[in-house]
Give the backbone structure.
Amino acid sequence: MITAIVFIQTEVSLISEAATAIADIDGVSEVYSVTGDHDLIAMVRVRTHEQIAAVGADRINKTPGVTATTTQIAFRAYSTHDLEDAFSIGLD
């Protein structure tokens, strides 16, 4: 499983609508509204790098209200709070 963290800037008036639409995208496991330089952070969990491109460039970037994104790919996890169990169901 590959995890990517997508930092998202949106039009201020469309933060909630963009967050809801992004949360409905296959491969997006969570969307958080945050303070600071970004409006939203999306956690993307997929099997291939091509899927990250599809979710990020083809779906998140084209969501109404999204004005910019930055994607960081995680290469090592230091927390094991049941994420493996949560995301392994039905993925055999």
